[in-house]
């Protein structure tokens, strides 16, 4: 075993070519992000985690059905054009929103070391997911945000080796997390632009 960020695929290692963002590597890194919610340790975030998981499943199903046409996320979306439901296109759109929410929250926490996670996630929610949610879902998130663990406890889990080995230093963990978040933010921005330029979110 190894500290969490060393045990999952980093977004920093997701290949990006002229054709776009590598689908399988992106999905693997997204699986790693899902696990972060287990480290947060709050069942209140189960709604977010389940939503991200469900959208990963939709994108992966499309890849497995048409692997040669879906080796990048951009090609996957383009090749679903014309189909009635476009399940993977909608799933990826929502997946990006969930990833953006998590990314911005942790970037907030990294930028302000005195800020608790509840505040960092609340700020992120305001600028990412809130505008897409109805009154009921906003209430669910209000509860979840208040249930965030203390930042010291969360970052201790990120530094720890679950197998009982030596934990990594705060500096090393910060370097790994910042590289992970910077790459994730760049991928989300690239794909959001792709969706906007191609009007791929129309109808959802």
TrEMBL record:
It holds the Pfam family GLTP. Signal peptide: none annotated. GO terms for molecular function: ceramide 1-phosphate binding; ceramide 1-phosphate transfer activity. The keyword Membrane does not apply. It comes from the Eukaryota. Keywords: Transport. SUPFAM superfamilies: Glycolipid transfer protein, GLTP. This is Glycolipid transfer protein domain-containing protein.
